[in-house]
């Protein structure tokens, strides 16, 4: 409905501009001014300070909710519950087998009682010494990888939540700035209308004010779209319905990152879960190699049984066996498995080195963006924005005394609007860069690493 109102307003503006460009008589001029007054009243009815439904949502609350309810993390936790049951399975022997045989069953009878011997046997395979322990170690490494995958994905979810939160903050702040600019342009329109009625300016100044208001409405439509998309993305990360309302957000603030890049690199090497995953892959590959080496040693099996002989004396029986893994016709398979396991270790080491370089680059990239956002926000707040406000006030006073034209006044208003939007964009970029930095180092940046900026300075 709000979008339809915007479209309707733009149509009215177009009709009004076309009509205004054609009038020439004083009566028509008075009528045009009255039309402009009515149109500004309609615009005022459409606008107002944005109101956000729902309870306030702080960033910490959003992160806690995402870590607890995000479906991706829940699925990984369930997969870890599966994987951690596997190591203890390797501690036990394989199940025994039981057999029953009938010996010397005459072919001229179908009665199994008319036989000379019944054999009842039990068999048990026994792996070579240490093999079960090594296989348990492999399963444990896989369980550790599944557990570490949760930490990796959690850092990704935290980063995505912070970026979505920053996008939503920026869209709302830009909307608020544009609403303030709408009010400012209304004041300019009032001034131009008053000057026009006294014959001090041409009709073009009145038209420019109306067109500029129309442009701001067009920007507000785009900002509303951005806000709704950011709301949907944030809601999905929090496992909420995409259209759920999100209340007021926590204000972003200027902060200065204190640690040097070398310190951040050290933290990343210690805490980054992706680097820990690559190390766990190396450990698993080494455990696989240890299992393959142990396969060169034989396994055993034992069999015990009881022979029931109706026409003779019963007897016990027993059997012990051993495998020959290094037989000439089977050793080649073990050699190939050993070569495969060795190559897997080399590949895992190479991947770890690649992950380490990628992490170092990610840390440096995020650090540079953090510092650039810090300087940009400080410059806009302390220098550019005050100067833009002062320039606009001077040009407004000059326009009221006919020393500058209306175009100069509008240009200065646009500059102030861009500067204010750029400042909040710098704050959003700072939050997103800090989120990327936390993901790169694999841990949360502590409060001691960030110095709040005193806004008075």
Count the domains: 1
Order of helices and strands: HHHHEEHHEHHEEHHE
Rounded to the nearest angstrom, the radius of gyration is 39 Å
Which secondary-structure class do the elements indicate?
alpha+beta
How does this model look, in words?
The protein has 457 residues and is α+β, with helices and mostly antiparallel strands. The chain has one domain (47-452): Outer membrane efflux proteins (OEP). Helix content is 67%, strand content 9%. The protein is built from ten helices and six strands; from the N terminus they run ααααββααβααββααβ. It has helices at 2-22, 26-46, 59-69, 71-83, 131-197, 203-237, 261-271, 273-294, 331-400, 406-441, and strands at 97-103, 117-126, 255-257, 300-308, 315-322, 450-452. Strands 1-2-4-5 form a four-stranded antiparallel beta sheet, with no helix packed on it. Strands 3-6 form a two-stranded antiparallel sheet. A hairpin with a 6-residue loop joins β4 (300-308) and β5 (315-322). The longest helix has 70 residues, at 331-400. The protein starts with a helix and ends in a 5-residue tail after the last strand. The model is unreliable at 1-25 (pLDDT under 50).
